[in-house]
Specification:
Arc Repressor Mutant, subunit A; alpha+beta; five-stranded antiparallel beta sheet; 11 strands; six-stranded antiparallel beta sheet
């Protein structure tokens, strides 16, 4: 059962619901079956906004609160949702959310589904809520995607428009991966350590750094450091560092006329032949072949 305390909407709101029979008829389309929008909207000054779903929602729900306050209650835990915060609620989990009456929230929201929708939740956890405060710059990347999705579906609800809206949704959700890893304000200690190591490695690309150096800098054991990087990247810290070096080398090969040996030194390799061997192992071609075949 779903409870709604303000059924008549909000002034200047946007609300688009895709007909469920339309979704059913087109769900086998390979461009939307993995991920698609079902509902999307914008509620300004949403005083008395309130939803209670005892059985949860049939879709995943993403809310972006731009200003004011609200709350989400799930698993008997109440979460205060402040401005500049995103909330991702899993499907089929009982929840309640709503706006503060004293300081109403202003939200963009979207419901989505698809065979791969769950993979946008942290660690594919389909039972826990994701709540994250974003910076102004991060919101500036997300909000145009919301408005584009709304404009696309508001203009014309054809299958081509739904495909386009779902592609925009995929881009929007992909930011959750980036933002969940780079925030130094995270309360997850693993993420904090990971971000600190990233900052250190990016500043030291011109040097040779060992696992001992990295562990000493971050004040962690080598085994702890390896576990964090394996979890976050699938690579060891040293393997990840080498790929950062090669990434920078590719940038220099594309954008400068520096000699191969000069580029090698800039990414911490005194021996250009060793650099070439590492580059070929990762990129599949030598630095000179990469430069000659670049598509820019």
């Amino acid at each position: 059962m779903e409870t709604i305390k303000k059924p008549h909407g909000f002034e200047n709101e946007k609300l688009i619901v895709l007909p469920r029979d339309f979704i059913s008829q087109n769900i086998k389309n390979p461009l939307i079956k993995d991920l698609h929008v079902t509902d999307v909207g914008f509620f300004p000054n949403a005083k008395y906004h309130y939803r209670e779903r005892n059985e949860g929602s049939e879709q995943y729900i993403l809310i972006v609160n731009l200003k004011g306050n609200g709350f989400v209650k799930m698993h008997n835990k109440n979460h205060l949702i402040k401005e500049n915060t995103i909330v991702l609620i899993p499907k089929n989990i009982a929840h309640i959310y709503g706006s503060s009456e004293q300081n109403p929230w202003e939200i963009y929201w979207i419901h989505f589904n698809g065979s791969k929708a769950k993979y946008y939740l942290p660690q594919y956890n389909t039972k826990d809520i994701l709540i994250k405060t974003l910076t102004i710059d991060q919101l500036a990347k997300i909000l145009p995607l919301f408005t584009s999705i709304i404009d696309t579906l508001e203009y014309n609800m054809t299958i081509n428009n739904v495909i386009h809206a779902s592609t925009l949704l995929s881009q929007l959700l992909s930011y959750l991966f980036i933002y969940s890893d780079i925030s130094i304000e995270s309360t997850d200690k693993k993420t904090v350590y990971f971000v600190q190591v990233l900052e250190y490695l990016n500043k030291e690309l011109h040097k040779h750094i060992s696992l001992d150096d990295i562990a000493s800098h971050i004040n962690l054991s080598k085994s702890q450091l390896n576990l964090i990087f394996k979890e976050k990247t699938g690579l060891s810290p040293v393997q990840f560092f080498i790929r950062l070096k090669i990434q920078k080398a590719c940038r220099l090969l594309n954008l400068t006329d520096l000699q191969i040996n000069e580029i090698a030194i800039k990414v911490g390799y005194e021996d250009p032949y060793f650099f070439t061997r590492i580059f070929r192992k990762i990129m599949g071609v030598s630095p000179s072949q990469y430069r000659n075949n670049k598509s820019m």
